[in-house]
Amino acid sequence: MHEQRVTRAYLTELFVSITVYAVLLVGSILIARPMADSLLRTVLLLLPMLGFALMIRAIVRHVARIDEYLRRRLLESTGIAFAITGALTFSYGFLETAGFPRLSMFSVWMVMGASWGLVNLVRGWSGR
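Given the sequence above, the corresponding structure tokens read:
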């Protein structure tokens, strides 16, 4: 029962923060991209990070609410995913010196998410 309440609270907070992020992202793109370079444009382009900050808050609150076993599993999975991400992005840095195209920093976040998902899939399969 407690686990369901914790999960429901987390998903609600996360959904709200993702919605805030998406609305601010669309708004900042529509309003700030056509603007001339200025401090206001920079601030508007960074505005979606408020939604991102709310996502971080939801995750921190979730970690504080879950039990020790789930917290440990989450920490282990995240640590493994960080290590994979570090290895892949560091390796690609060497490839860039060999002439491969430079990638946006946004790609690191995608690699991190994919690594974390893969780690959780493998750990789920091996845990059965």
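The chain has a mean pLDDT of 94. Try to locate this feature in the token string yourself.
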